[in-house]
Design brief:
With 194 residues, this protein is mainly beta. It has a single domain, classed as Sandwich (Immunoglobulin-like). 10% of the residues lie in helices and 28% in strands. The protein contains two helices and nine strands, in the order αββββββαβββ. The strands form two sheets. A seven-stranded antiparallel sheet has the order 6-8-9-3-4-5-7. It starts with a helix and ends in a 10-residue tail after the last strand.
């Protein structure tokens, strides 16, 4: 009986600490705001390739920078009338023969949660994987966009590690409409990928 009560208490405490509120009333993660990543391997590139099998074709490239990661989105085939579209780094990779549902939730290294939606003007308070929340949604039929996310990491031991995870596009209803894994590009020996 005492064990059940203790377990219930721990569960309730976990729920109560899943978010924090900053002095100005902004929701942030239970572990505080995301921290800028300053030790990424500069020039290391990871690419999510959307092959058109889900209607969307193109790439999202993530390249290590002195602070965070530089992202380039170059996508076509976004379905008309279904946007605007969110895009996120999810916690898991798309398994072989899997579906976008198998990629888990958004990458949320600081335990923030999706609700309330993140405030784009305060990106450190957002889920690390909520790229569209921080840098804007995209719309049909195509999107070309670049931005730097200081909270994305390319080192496995860092919070915010994006490697070997999936990027997922969601339509306006939040349905997962396309996903692709971030795959490390081979280096040419000069710190640049092929």
């Amino acid at each position: 009986m005492q064990l059940v009560s203790f377990v219930s208490l721990i569960g309730a405490a976990s729920l109560a600490t899943s978010q924090a509120t900053t002095p100005n009333g902004t929701v942030t993660g239970a572990m505080g705001d995301a921290k800028p990543i300053k030790n990424n391997p500069v020039g290391e590139a990871w690419v999510a390739t959307f092959d058109g099998s889900q209607g969307i074709k193109g790439t999202i490239t993530a390249v290590g920078w002195t602070v965070g990661v530089n992202y380039t989105i170059d996508i076509t085939g976004l379905p008309e009338g279904k946007g605007p579209f969110n895009y996120h780094v999810h916690a898991k990779a798309l398994p072989p023969n899997g579906t976008c549902a198998d990629t888990g939730a958004h990458l949320d290294s600081y335990v923030r949660g999706q609700e309330p939606p993140c405030t784009a003007s305060l990106p450190a308070t957002c889920e690390v994987g909520d790229l569209s929340g921080k840098y804007g949604k995209v719309d049909a039929p195509a999107a070309k966009k670049t931005f730097n996310d200081p909270y994305s990491a390319l080192d496995k031991i860092m919070l915010g590690y994006i490697g070997e995870r999936a990027i997922v596009f969601h339509d306006a209803s939040s349905a997962r409409i396309a996903c692709a894994n971030l795959v490390k590009k081979a280096s040419d020996g000069h710190g640049h990928g092929h």
